[in-house]
Amino acid sequence: MLRDIWNTFLGFLHSFGGMCLFFLRLVQYTPQVLFKRFSLVVYQVHNAGALSLVVIVISGLFVGAVLGLLAYSSLEQFNAEDTTGIFAGLGLTKGIGPVFTALLFAGRAGTALTSEIGLMKATDQLSAMEMMAVDPLRYVAVPRFLGGVIAMPLLTAIFTSIGLLGAHLVAVEQLGVDVGAYWQQLQNVVDDPDVHEGITKSIVFGIVASLVAVWEGYNSTPTAEGVGRATTRTVVVTSIAVLFFNYMITAIYL
Fold first, then answer.
1. Is 113 or 180 the better-scoring residue by pLDDT?
2. pLDDT at residue 177, as a whole number
3. SS3 category, 218
4. Are 155 and 57 in contact (CB under 8 A)?
5. Residue 68 in contact with residue 88, Cβ under 8 Å?
6. Where do the H-state alpha helices sit in 169-218?
7. Separation CA 88–CA 140 (nearest Å)
8. Closest by alpha carbon to 96, among 69, 73, 66, 74?
9. Closest Cα partner for 101 from 47, 157, 149?
10. Can you tell me the distance from the alpha carbon of 217 to that of 17, in angstroms, rounded to the nearest whole number?
């Protein structure tokens, strides 16, 4: 058992080190891709962002609605129903919005990126690029990585906005909270540092989720089973990493 634990730990260190080196290579090639293959980046932003809008909007609406219900039921005990907007605004802007968006991104766009790159590797498309003197890292990995990094903050902003709308519909339209008090309290409490924290989290989560998805696909075993395992690892690793970095960033801002 101890030997298995030690081998697992060594495997984790090996994978983590390889991912860090892979990330440095992506950063190194980023300026060249942005200037020479910008159309590929735009396509990947559409692929990772626009095609995820439906699940982001629907999830944001219901998450905001549930948050409005929970806030109202808790604050009603202290006759502070008018501060429901504060609860919803801070929760969505600083924590729930970026985290839920990253988890949904990993489940939809992250798995798609991993399976796409893994399938290209399994069918020897990456090897064919290398034979034609085309670097697959620049042509395949970097545009998809940048597309995810750019799309994540945009999706987070949409999720947060729709979530606030869902909380408004429940608190104001259904439960009778004064609409002026709801929005005025929200505007008075949610200030620039809170928004900056949410933006920072969305950028970090975008880097983490895109890096894990591209790494797992690029280094997957070139078989159907290997691609499936890489897709599963993408969701698991991204979820754990997002929750870890969410705690770290929250602690830093506090």
1. 113
2. 79
3. helix
4. no
5. yes
6. 179-189, 192-218
7. 40
8. 66
9. 157
10. 17
> For residue range 56-80, what is the model confidence (pLDDT) as tens digits?
999 999 998 898 888 888 877 777 7
Closest CA to 139 of 126, 152, 150, 124: 126
Cα–Cα distance, 156 to 149 (Å, whole number): 11
Mean pLDDT computed over every residue of the chain: 86
204 confidence band (pLDDT: 50, 70, 90): very high
Q: Which of 146, 121, 118 is nearest to 37 (CA)?
A: 146
Based on DSSP, count helices (H) and strands (E) in the chain, helices before strands.
12, 0
Measure the CA angle with vertex 110, ends 123 and 42; round to 5°: 85
74-77: which pairs have CB atoms within 8 A and are 24 or more residues apart?
none
Q: Give 211-251 pLDDT, tens digit per residue.
A: 999 998 888 888 888 888 889 989 999 999 999 999 999 89
- Give which of 120, 108, 104, 107 is closest to 227, Cα–Cα: 120
Closest among 194, 192, 199, 147 to 38, alpha carbons compared: 147
Q: Give the tokens for residue 12.
A: 């984790």
